[in-house]
Write a structure and sequence with these properties.
Blueprint (H helix, E strand, L loop, with lengths): L3 H14 L5 H4 L9 H9 L3 E7 L2 E6 L4 E5 L6 H7 L3 E5 L6 H14 L3 H10 L4 H8 L16 H15 L1 H5 L8 E6 L5 H12 L3 E5 H4 L6 H15 L3 E6 L2 H4 L9 H18 L7 E7 L17 E5 L4 H12 L10 H6 L6 H17 L7 H18 L5 H19 L7 E5 L9 E4 L10 H22 L7 H16 L15 E5 L2 E5 L4 H28 L1 H14 L1 E3 H29 L1
Parallel strand pairs: 1-4, 5-8, 5-9, 6-7, 7-8
Antiparallel strand pairs: 1-2, 2-3, 10-11, 10-14, 12-13
The structure holds adenosine-5'-diphosphate, magnesium ion and zinc ion.
Adenosine-5'-diphosphate binds next to helix 10, helix 15 and helix 17.
Amino acid sequence: MKNPVQAGLLLITLTALGVIGYNIWLYETTPPDHTYTSFLEELKNNQILKVHLHGQEITGEDTAGRSFSTVTPEVSSLLPLLLEKNVEITADPVSTGGTGDYIKSMLPILLIFGGWMIFSKMQRKGSGGSGKKSSHLVQVQDERVTFNDVAGIAEAKEELMEIVTFLKHPERSSRLGGRIPKGVLLQGQPGTGKTLLARAIAGEALVPFYSIGGSDFVEMFVGVGASRVRELFNEAKKNAPCIIFIDEIDAIGGKRSGGNATGSNDEREQTLNALLVEMDGFRSGETVIVVAATNRPDILDPALLRAGRFDRQVTIGLPDTKGRRQILDVHVKKVAISPGVELDAIARSIPGFSGAEIANLVNEAALMAARKDQTAIEMVDFEEAKDKIIMGLARKNVVISEKDRRITAYHESGHAIVGLFLEETDPLHKITIMPRGKALGLTQQLPLGERYTYSREYLENRIKILMGGRVAEELIFHRLTTGASNDLISATDIARRIICEWGMSPALGFIAYNQEQDSFLGSATISKPYSEKTAEIIDNEVKRVLDECYFEATDILTKHNKFLHNLAEILLIHETMDSEEVDITYRRYLKELKMEKDIIRQQKEVFS
Ligand code: ADP
Ligand code: MG
Ligand code: ZN
């Protein structure tokens, strides 16, 4: 908000929306910067454009557009001169308070009259004194953002809709004794729209939004961060219901170091502690929801995630093809695009793009088109913009090669198909080749209900499904990749437990051969409470179980090779398929399979 006019307009817009966060200005006072004599002089020389009277205090603007303030010893004698010089006069009732009060009581009127006058003054003065810290601490959103501005992440939006309801009707939510959540942690890669979402929550609920970046808390001097936290929460509580947004919370919320704290760690720890104390100290009736964002949830201090703190965690993934199309829609609305632009095709061609990168793509394309003096953005502009961005990305190692995508698509399809052809197993929930963290893809099964016991068949089926990924890669690409290493670790773990823990192996019987893991002085030692000979039998048994499962997975995927190709190709286009979409493909395959069999049978009948 460098521009005073913007600041004024902003405040007015916010009032209109009922989102008022005037805190920035309340800390300011305006000592007069003109002597009355110099003011009179300017007035006589026709250099004053307008004044605002508040008792004896005068603020205004000169003909050069500069604002000023002064104090008059007596108003009534001044008025005739003001009128004579054609100065625009506004005024408001006198209050008895000091200068701080003065600003406060003036606010409503300032909003209506060219309010930016006084703000310009404060803005200029804001470079020093207590006002600076506060305005830096408490930021008001400069433009209302709603869920309509956030696209392609429907699941996250749905989860956050609940928070909006809490903010809008706190009484309704707590009527039955339900506890309103205090903290929501948004986690996801950079550019996935975490900040945008946080602002949208405030925009939807029409509540004030206090935002601070994690790094703002961390100052050189111990105690500053902690006092900022307290200040922020005090301010917020006064204006509840509202949202406090802490961006990059990992800057203060990283795991605490324990013994070897250095100076800066000390400061961080104090800040984090202050935050925890504040969050724990909310009373009922204070509907302040703390929303935090991070792209490093793994390094967060577990204390932050405890119940009553950030116990809601919403993960925001990279958008899939459909999601990217929706985000494109949001952003192309702001520019002129030619009817020849195929948004679907663009969405398909930018796998791995985040929301921010898509926004950037549209922006770059618009710049390209403008440079060529076009009236609308053409498909080629998008292509050029895309190349430019991807080239930049490739350096950052974000983009997945086409080959890796293919292998991943077959790998994940392999998991899914093995699962589809097994009886006792959890239903498929989702299958995706969207990279997430270290994984290039993911096949998710969701148990229908909670399971407490597992049959041997169920467990072995799990192993077969885990093997499915590796098997598919081998069948199609005739080579092995490291992509299946996690699957193999899980499979081996299950197999070992089938044999050792659950006593399901006939060769070993019902004895539980537990391996106990001790963590002593950091190094794990494994003690085996059985003989070397037994260990050998165990190893053989584990290998036998794994081999059997591997063969069965190979069997299924060989038999349904066509389906594997089919599903993988669809996955390459859609990137994410839910259970219903997989089911449609599956049933279509079964139907074709039946038709094929019928044809073969008919042919046999004809020839025999
Ligand atoms: P993050 O905080 O996760 O790093 P931001 O919220 O700052 O990401 O996103 C940066 C910009 O990218 C947003 O202002 C918006 O223009 C665009 N953007 C990101 N995600 C989305 C989305 N899901 N829908 C629409 N625009 C998005
Ligand atoms: Mg952000
Ligand atoms: Zn896998």
